[in-house]
Amino acid sequence: MSQDKLNPPNPDLPHQSPVVPNLLKTDTKIQFRCYPGISCYNECCRHADITLTPYDILRMKKNLGLSTSEVLDKYTVPFEMDASGMPGIKLRTQNDKPVCLLMNDQGCSIYEDRPSACRYYPVGLLAMRATGAPNEEHHYCLVNEDHCKGHDEDNEITIDQYRDEQGVKEYDDMNREWYQIILKKRSSGPAVGKPSNMSLQLFFMCSYDIDRFRRFVDSDSFKATYLLEEVEAQQLQQDDTALMKFGFRLLKQVLYGENSIPMQEGVLEQRIEKRRDILEMRRQAEIEEHQRKNDIYDNMEK
C-alpha cells in the first residue's frame, strides 16, 4: 500500500540523513533532555535548516512586531516543496554559515514563539495518508545528530509528553488543515497537473503572508466574487488566526473544489464559461501548432 508523507521540519532529507528510520507513536519512549548548561546548548540553532508553517509566521509576526510581509522579507527564504512548485519557506541563516538569524548571545530571541520544527527537535513529525484513505495519520521519527548531546541524558520521556513539554500541540492543531492541503496535492500526483502560477501565488499568500491576504479579502474584487456575512468579514479583518483558517478553506475551494465559502450569484456560471473559452483557445492553439509542424515536414520532403 503506497503512502503519502509530509515531514514539515525537513521535507527533503539528504541521503546521509541523521533521521533514525523508525516510525514512532505518541506513546513511544525516547531518551532525551535539553537544558541550559548542557555542552551542546543552542548548537542546533547553529545548524539551522528550518521549514516554516503558516502558524509559525503568525507567532513570529506577533513576537517581532512586524507585518507578515516584513517577516518573510527579513527572516525567510523561499523554496519549492515538490516538483509542481508548491512554495515553501525556510528560516534565513547568516550568509557565510547556517546560523539562525534569530540567535543572540542568550540564545533564541523569540523563544516563547519559536517555530514548530524548533520545538519538535530532535523529533520529526510525519503526517501520512494511505492512498484512498480519508484522513491522515501522524507518526514521528527521531533525529540523532552528532552535535546533540541531549540523547546521552538519563531522561526517558514519551513523544506525547515531549510534545506537551515543548508546547507544540497548539501548532499542530493550527496547521492541521494546511498539512491536509499539501498531502492531498501529493496524493493526487501528476493527474491533477501543475498548479497555475496564480494558484501558486494564492497558496503562498494564504499560507504565509496573512497581512497581504487580509487586504485581498477586503478588496472589491474579492467581495464581488465571494459572499461573506458582515460578522465574519469583520472578524477576518481583526483576527489573524481566523483569517489563516479562512485561507485554508479558500485554498481547498480553489484547488480542490471543496466549496465552503458561498459565492455571489452568477459568479460560478461565469467562471465555468470563462474556463470553457480558455480550453477552446488552447485546443485551437494546439491544432494550429500541429498544422504548423506538418507544413514544416511537408516542405522538408519537397
Radius of gyration: 23 Å
Count of helical regions: 11
Assess the beta-strand content as a share of residues. 5-15%
Low-pLDDT runs of 5+ residues are 1-16
Overall mean pLDDT score? Answer: 84
Number of strands: 10
Helicity, in percent? 40-55%
What summary fits the major beta sheet? 4 strands, antiparallel
Quaternary structure annotation: single chain
Task: Summarize the helix and strand pattern as letters.
Answer: EEEHHEEEEHEEEHHHHHHHH
Strand order of the largest sheet: 1-8-9-2
**C-alpha termini separation:** 55 Å
Class by helix and strand content?
alpha+beta
In short:
With 302 residues, the chain is α+β, with helices and mostly antiparallel strands. It is 46% helix and 15% strand. The chain has helices at 54-64, 68-75, 116-120, 159-166, 169-188, 197-207, 210-217, 220-225, 230-238, 240-256, 267-301, and strands at 3-6, 19-24, 29-31, 76-80, 87-91, 103-104, 107-108, 123-130, 137-143, 156-158.
